[in-house]
């Protein structure tokens, strides 16, 4: 039991106010800098003693006037897989004592270029970029300001100046399709986004098409909106005519829309309709039935990107290119 209420922690701000000096002056006194007059030093020390202040990390940071600030460009934090990557970045950044400045864009080239301008004028020490709209020359604009850059889901040829993390999706998807075509009889459909699907989805669509052409098998590409409700509405009508198929969806949300629309039309999963989510997240296992998916550990992607950038900030000059492989996870929506 205490004799009274717990005493609130005294901050450096209160010390500065009591001594009538700036935060930086308090910090210089705490860190024994020479450029403080004896009169000021005694005034600050007296305030510290009277308030019972204990120095924190902020005092040391103010003394050095140096905080490593990392700029991160992402298309949207609303997507679970992007949020997972961001979690990996921020967790690792905290371990290194780095600050993060976030720049969020939509799927528009102009917005992505504006994000670059904001990143440069923010004077960041390094940058991690995960955006489908930026080309190599856009990324090299940042490098031109002597800012180390790591790009995710993109490949920059000048690997001595830019770190690259790519995703090993295509091979996994090709092997999964080949296996299915050898044993399955349903027509396969690839769902893509109408407006600006992005590099990754375009690459996967090419792999899907080329694998079917090589096997001389019929397929179809279906254009959808990047919206659960609109995809659900589209497929509610679609399944009134088409009663069988294997549907490759770009992520868990459209996969759930296809699955629910199929069930509303009295179709069985996976007997009548099979479904694969290309970017599987924890929701693939939460949905019922559980959605078969291609899983990529985006938290690991974020950690890897931050570790790579830290090495670059520390002056490492070796080639920086890492591919993180995906894994096909067969669950309830495919016949395995």
CATH class of the largest domain: Alpha Beta
Q: So, the CATH homologous superfamily of the largest domain?
A: Response regulator
Counting DSSP E segments of at least 2 residues, the number of strands comes to 12
Quick one: overall form? elongated
Biggest sheet statistics: 6 strands, parallel
Total number of domains: 3
Q: Can you tell me the residue ranges where pLDDT is under 50 for at least 5 consecutive residues?
A: 1-7
Contiguous helical run count: 13
Question: What order do the SSEs take from the amino end to the carboxyl end, as H and E?
Answer: HHHHEHEHEHEEHEHEHEHEHEHEE
- The proportion of strand residues reads 15-25%
| Proper CATH architecture of the largest domain | 3-Layer(aba) Sandwich
**Structural class by sheet pairing and helices:** alpha/beta
CATH topology-level fold name of the largest domain: Rossmann fold
Describe the structure.
This protein has 336 residues and is α/β, with parallel strands linked by helices. The protein folds into three domains: 12-64, Orthogonal Bundle (434 Repressor (Amino-terminal Domain)); 69-168 and 298-325, Rossmann fold, CATH 3.40.50; 170-295, 3-Layer(aba) Sandwich (Rossmann fold), CATH 3.40.50.2300. The protein is 46% helix and 19% strand. Helix 1 packs across helix 3, helix 6 (109-121) packs parallel to helix 7 (136-143) and helix 10 runs parallel beside helix 11 (252-264).
């Amino acid at each position: 039991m205490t004799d009274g209420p717990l005493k609130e922690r005294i901050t450096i701000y209160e010390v500065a106010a009591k001594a009538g000096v700036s935060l930086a002056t308090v910090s210089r006194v705490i860190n024994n800098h020479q450029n403080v007059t004896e009169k000021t030093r005694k005034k600050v020390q007296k305030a510290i003693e009277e308030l019972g202040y204990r120095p924190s990390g902020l005092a040391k940071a103010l003394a050095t006037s140096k905080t490593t600030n990392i700029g991160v460009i992402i298309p949207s934090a609303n997507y679970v897989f992007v949020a997972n990557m961001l979690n990996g970045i921020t967790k690792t950044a905290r371990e290194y004592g780095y600050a993060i400045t976030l720049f969020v864009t939509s799927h528009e080239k102009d917005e992505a270029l504006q994000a670059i301008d904001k990143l440069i004028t923010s004077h960041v020490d390094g940058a991690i970029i995960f955006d489908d709209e930026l080309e190599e020359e856009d990324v090299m604009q940042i490098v031109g300001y002597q800012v180390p850059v790591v790009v995710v889901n993109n490949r920059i040829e000048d690997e001595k100046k830019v770190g690259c993390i790519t995703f090993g999706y295509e091979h996994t998807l090709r092997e999964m399709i080949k296996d299915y075509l050898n044993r399955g009889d349903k027509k396969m459909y690839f769902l893509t986004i109408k407006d600006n699907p992005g590099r990754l989805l375009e690459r996967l669509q090419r792999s899907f098409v080329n694998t079917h052409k090589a096997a001389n098998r019929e397929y179809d590409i279906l254009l959808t909106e990047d919206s659960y409700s609109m995809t659900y509405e589209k497929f509610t009508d679609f399944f009134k005519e088409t009663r069988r198929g294997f549907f490759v969806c770009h992520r868990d949300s459209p996969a759930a829309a296809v699955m629910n629309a199929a069930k509303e039309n009295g179709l069985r999963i996976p007997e009548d309709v099979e479904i694969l989510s290309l970017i599987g997240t924890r929701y693939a296992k939460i949905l019922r039935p559980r959605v078969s998916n291609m899983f990529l550990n985006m938290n690991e992607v974020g950690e890897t990107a931050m570790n790579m950038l830290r090495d670059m900030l520390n002056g490492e000059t070796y080639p920086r290119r890492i591919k993180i492989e995906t894994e096909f996870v067969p669950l309830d929506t495919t016949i395995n």
